[in-house]
Amino acid sequence: MAATPSNFKKGIEVAVVEKGRKITCLMSDAFWCFAGDMAEEMGVPWLAFYNAEACALATYVYTDLICSTTGVGPNAITGREHETLGFIPGMSSVRIRDVMIDGIIIENLGSTFISMVHRMAQMLPRATAVLINTYEELNPTIIKELKSNFQKCLSLAPFTLDYPPPSDSDTTGCLTWLDKQKPSSVGYISFGTVGTLPAYELEALAEGLEGSGTPFLWSLKDKLKEQLPVSFLNRTREWGLIVPWAPQFRVLQHTAVGVFMTHCGWNSVLESILGGVPVIGRPIFGDQPLNLRFISDVWGGFGIRIDNGVFTKDGVIKGLELILFNEEGKKMMEKVQAFRKLAEKAIESDGSSTMSFKALTLQIVSSTKPPSYMDDDHL
Length: 379
Description:
- The structure is a single chain.
- Helix 10 packs across helix 15, helix 13 packs across helix 16 and helix 15 crosses helix 16.
- The strands form 2 sheets. This protein has a 6-stranded parallel beta sheet, sandwiched between helices.
- Helix content is 45%, strand content 11%.
- The radius of gyration is 22 Å and the shape is globular.
- It is α/β, with parallel strands linked by helices and 379 residues long.
- The chain has 17 helices and 10 strands.
- The protein has 2 domains: 155 residues, Rossmann fold (3-Layer(aba) Sandwich), CATH 3.40.50.2000; 170 residues, Rossmann fold.
């Protein structure tokens, strides 16, 4: 946090010299709000991009309000973890416990993370536009509230719905393996590239997969295979496949996949919606508990939290059976498919995300003082 602003400024200066072109617009991750100060110094628009869902951004924007209302630190909220944040529009179903892991309440207010979040909340209203990796129909109340806080708030997702996949993206052969499985029969498992489950949970998850007999595709780093039960790979090789990496978006769009076990990082949640696949969630850190709360309780329930928040053999078997074989699982599939249809609508020619993208494009183009013929039709 101390070094990045000056390093970034030097990088900009070098780029300007090397390219011989003046910078007319500056876009950065919303967390790197020092870019807003730089944009003001340069006299150019600052576009702040938030690469997660609007609900998490709202908790950051209202950090001061949350802390003043609930108190700060574990002692202040003991016994109140299930109280909701109904004082924030669109967050009436969100509990205090859902934002605890994100650092807003538990962390010391002087911590680096909270200082960064607090600064971001102060800076974003000064941004020319705040861009969010979501679509308005997913959280209309929260988006409306954020629009009242910012000069311009543009929801741009889903970026990848119509994007053609690279031809070589199935390097581990998982799509070929999925082609041989029955429709909606496979459990896909991935917990992202950053967070890691405790060894005892990895073992319990493996035992549950084996005990259920459910076909599974598991994206798991090679170094973590050592933590699996002895001979697990041999015993399940007839119906399971473990790979070090999977083309997740394509996997979730495959007809064979019926459930997604995930940490509920936002990109994974969005891809589960676009794939029309219900979720079994086990959050690890950050905004993941909040995302799961929206999945299980706010958005009509197209997923569940693993029993007691940790993997056990019985919990895994129970979750897989619920979604893959019970009537409740069929209803979850219908609910997530409905959200997928809303995403498809958002990127139609007159959809909310398409209109936001046009507004973004016009903002960038107008900063370069385009010719008079550069209007919306030409874009």
